[in-house]
Amino acid sequence: MKGPLFYAKILLFGEYGIIKDSKGLAIPFNAYRGALKSTNDLSGVSKKSNENLELFYKYISNLKTDIVSFNLSEFKTDIENGMYFDSSIPQGYGVGSSGALVASVYDKYATNKITVLENLTREKLLKLKEVFSLMESFFHGKSSGLDPLNSYLSLPILINSKTNIEPAGIPSQKEGKGAVFLLDSQQIGETEPMVNIFMNKMKNEGFRKMISEEFATTTDACIEDFLGGNVKSLFGNVKLLSKIVLKNFKPMIPNAFHKVWEKGIKTNDYYLKLCGSGGGGYILGFTEDFEKAQKSLKEYKLELVYRF
User: Fold this and answer.
1) Could you tell me if residue 223 is inside a domain?
2) What distance separates the 2 farthest-apart alpha carbons in the chain?
3) Does one domain contain both 74 and 131?
4) Residue 138 sits in a domain of what CATH number?
5) 218 within 8 A of 235, measured Cβ to Cβ
6) Where are the beta strands (DSSP E) in 104-247?
7) pTM of the full predicted structure?
8) N or C: which end of the chain has fewer CB within 10 A?
9) How far apart are CA 219 and CA 17, in angstroms?
10) Which value, in Å, is the radius of gyration of the alpha carbons in the chain?
11) Of the candidates 49, 43, 58, 39, the residue with the CA atom closest to the CA atom of residue 87
12) Is 148 in contact with 132 (CB distance < 8 Å)?
């Protein structure tokens, strides 16, 4: 048995903001992928994955919901026969490892599933997001459902609000100097503790005001610039976003990167922002000159995502 491939995702803009209903933009990232496979010889990583699928199966079996049903007997039999999720997507890195797993389980075992080939109305997209949110909550305690949605559809998705999402056309890549890249923090980040820190901060009126007046409006401006191909304006807004995140989201930025973050803002060689919930994993970088950013960050491993 070998299932179809599901890709990693990158939330270019909107981390934390989408929890509070501001805009977000997610794109598939084809460098990493995963698929359901079977083996007669479970050991090491495949054994651990098989055990996790067993726990996931139990979670799904106990879901009290009318919006989705699964072929549970087939799912259980496949797990007993050595099924595991074979994935190159790094876990705890903010690029949707659990999202790809959720998408592959839905694709294989959901009955009456919404397929990628049908006309994806807003209602269908929202229903998929709701199903995926329910499923992925097993991994994170609370999930927006966006990571699996992105992985399942393999399309850029624009989140206008919780009840308004649509596939987005992003400008095709150019062979320019500018780039979006991933910087490897070489630390694992856990989503749940980071989201809890954010939720606690949201109890503070000043923090709430900053989210709605500064963070959300700057994020929205970045998304509009990116989708509109307004590169010059985009970098001005990304710089501002980088400053806002450094000032207000310090616990989500690994300590070793506070100075690196500041350096980018001071030199304009690059600007950093959170990739996913932060706390480790990847950090997302934007630069008008990728070669310059590579020199400036020569001690770190960078991975190219998109070229301007």
Assistant:
1) yes
2) 58
3) yes
4) 3.30.230
5) no
6) 110-111, 157-161, 164-167, 179-184
7) 0.89
8) N
9) 8
10) 19
11) 49
12) yes
CA distance 304 to 48: 30
Compute the distance between CA of residue 110 and CA of residue 68 in angstroms, rounded to an integer.
7
Domain encompassing residue 81: 6-167
Q: Identify the CA nearest to 147 among candidates 200, 187, 93, 188.
A: 93
Q: Confirm whether 72 is domain-assigned.
A: yes
Q: Write the pLDDT tens digit of every residue in 128-158.
A: 999 999 999 998 777 888 899 999 999 999 9
Query: Residue type at 215?
Result: F
Q: How many domains does the chain have?
A: 2
219 shares a domain with 131: no
Beta carbons of 114 and 125 less than 8 angstroms apart: no
Q: Six-digit token pair at 233?
A: 């304006």
> What is the C-alpha separation between 292 and 24, in angstroms, rounded?
28
In a domain, 24, yes or no: yes
Listed residue (180, 193, 192, 11) closest to 95, CA to CA: 11
- Of residues 33, 177, 159, 158, the one with CA closest to residue 99: 33
Among 8, 19, 7, smallest CA distance to 194 is for: 19
Instruction: Examine the domain organization and report whether 135 and 98 are in the same domain.
Output: yes
Judgement on whether residues 140 and 195 belong to the same structural domain of the protein: no
1-55 pLDDT tens trace: 678 999 999 999 998 888 777 899 999 999 999 999 999 999 999 999 999 999 9
The two tokens of residue 70 are 């699964």
Q: Which residues contact 144 (CB under 8 A, 6 or more apart)?
A: 18, 19, 129, 133
